[in-house]
Design goal:
The chain is mainly alpha-helical. It has helices spanning about 55, 60-85, 90-105, 105-115, 115-145, 155-185, 185-215, 220-249, and strands at about 5-10, 10-15, 40, 45. A hairpin with a 5-residue loop joins strand 3 and strand 4 (about 45).
């Protein structure tokens, strides 16, 4: 049986092969995922922090993004509880880092709720601004702690929060990578690799707990500043994505 199928788009009727990559804006159920990624010299495809167009055309892609970001949101919430008890600047930076990653689902939700590209871009800009402001807050706290040293407490809980951040990112990475390979989406695979790398950022929180326990509390704000640099890199990449989408449309 032929895979050709006839479609009507407004007044235009056309046929195309249903087996390949194509998109239906009004009927996503009929769509096949269309891979999209950026190449940067080295030939490695990757996305920049916000949700890629190819993922938005696939229900399974949306489900994977939502689930992975829910995992990161829960990890950040757990870390926030421990931060209130420990006061660790390294932990503050990591929970902002994980919460910022979870926030990138907001433009996706807006795009589907309102079906408006402009609203989606505005939501994307709001997310970038929120991550940037949060990074500044964490950086300010870290510098303040360097000027007025004070050792964080609840060290066992602090180390546990680092483990929680690590586990959350590893699980998010597994969800994204599995869906990305099944959908053949370079962007989703790239986001999975990104989450896997971010897991090691959370391990820095465990290093901070060990450093404080060993009598070197100065390392806590220094680790916090290093994580801030990672957050600022994500902010820049996300900003380029949103700006790129604006120029694209």
């Amino acid at each position: 049986m032929s895979a050709e199928r006839t479609h009507r788009h407004g007044r235009v009727v056309h046929a195309h092969d249903h087996r390949g990559e194509h998109r239906h804006l009004t009927a996503p159920r009929l769509s096949r995922p269309v891979a999209h990624a950026h190449e940067h010299g080295s030939g490695h495809a990757h996305s920049h922090g916000l949700v890629d167009d190819s993922i938005k055309r696939s229900r399974e892609g949306i489900r994977a993004v939502a689930l992975s970001l829910a995992v990161l949101g829960l990890a950040a919430a757990g870390q926030a509880v421990v931060y209130a008890a420990s006061g660790s600047v390294a932990l503050l930076a990591d929970l902002i880092h994980n919460a910022g990653d979870a926030l990138t689902a907001v433009p996706l939700a807006v795009a589907f709720a309102l079906r408006s590209e402009r609203a989606e871009r505005l939501a994307g800009l709001a997310v970038v601004a929120a991550i940037f402001v949060s990074a500044c807050v964490a950086g300010f706290e870290a510098i303040s702690r360097l000027i007025h040293p004070s050792a964080p407490g609840a060290l066992w809980a602090l180390a546990g929060a680092g483990v929680l951040g690590y586990a959350g990112n590893r699980l998010a990475a597994r969800i994204r990578l599995r869906a990305g390979r099944r959908l053949r989406s370079p962007a989703l695979i790239a986001d999975g690799e990104h989450a896997r790398a971010d897991a090691y950022v959370s391990l820095a929180v465990i290093a901070s707990a060990l450093a404080v326990a060993a009598g070197a509390p100065i390392l806590d704000p220094l680790i916090g500043l290093a994580i801030c640099a990672v957050i600022l890199r994500i902010t820049w990449q996300s900003w380029r994505t949103v700006r790129g989408h604006e120029h694209h449309h």
